[in-house]
Amino acid sequence: MRIFSGIQPTGAKHLGNYAGGFRQYVESQERGDAFFCVVDLHSITVDYDPAGLRERTLSLAAMLFAAGLDPERSTVFVQSHVPAHAEAAWLLSAVTSYGQLGRMTQFKDKAAQRDFVPAGLFTYPLLMAGDILLYRTDAVPIGDDQRQHLELARDVAARFNARFGELFRVPEGIYPAVGARLMDLQEPTRKMSTTGGTPQGTVLLLDPPETIRRKIRSAVTDSGSEIRRGADKAGIANLIDIMSVATGEAPEWIERRYDGGGYGRFKRDVAEAVIALLEPFQAQYAEFRSDPGELQRLLAVGGEKARTASAPTRARMYELMGFVAPIGALKEPSKRNVQSIRNC
Ligand code: TRP
Q: What is the value of pTM for the model shown?
């Protein structure tokens, strides 16, 4: 089974990214042939700082390896290292309508927030469709907020196949289980996020232990004292989910274990569990960052594997769409072709 997912090198990564993203990626590499792409081309669709992009890209790559993606088993690479992604996005624009792109809620939301709306914000789902379709992907582990974009990729694949000939596989999304979505510690009705949440309510993957303790200690709870999920208990429910992510224990067991335990002790234990989860991750991360040459080498290997894996689909797209193949692409050049090269 071919698996593909993309992660943007924007914003500091947090516990919510780990719970709903990295953790799934590591699990999915057991299930098949997995590709994980740091989608740097996507990250220029909103205002960004060119000087920071390089650092964020390398940092995210190091996090993916630190979380447990195995470069021997999975292909971890940077989108801009594989030019076929940008090409596929352009080619797929022929089978995608303006109206379809205009219906994307993420585009509408983000466009409403700014005066200058980059064209890339509008065509973004095409780049994403290209990412997925180039690898003839079966399954895409992805966040809930990306459902509409994945549906569009499926529509685009089907329209291409109908218009130009069977080429693409129509991919399925794999969405995080309930509970994998962590909420902001300060405002537990909003999801944990570096853009939409609060800084105090967001546990960053690179936060030092003291910061983690402070953030969890000051998490909003309720006026009761029972450690269980339920109406008006969004804060405690979220802490139970966090505990479950950190220890792998089912939420019901956590409720049972802390029955009558009190919020103070529970919060302390949640903080220590998160610290224990992140300690090896942070140590691995530091190791990858201490050797930039090795990190770049791993990404070069991933880029090469990705170029090789996507090359046949890329070539077939051009061919089915009626483009003249460049001479270098011919398997056995005819005498006349060779002659015409010599003559020029
Ligand atoms: N748009 C996705 C997000 O913001 C990132 C992404 C880009 C992606 N290309 C992808 C995800 C391909 C899955 C597959 O989260």
A: 0.92
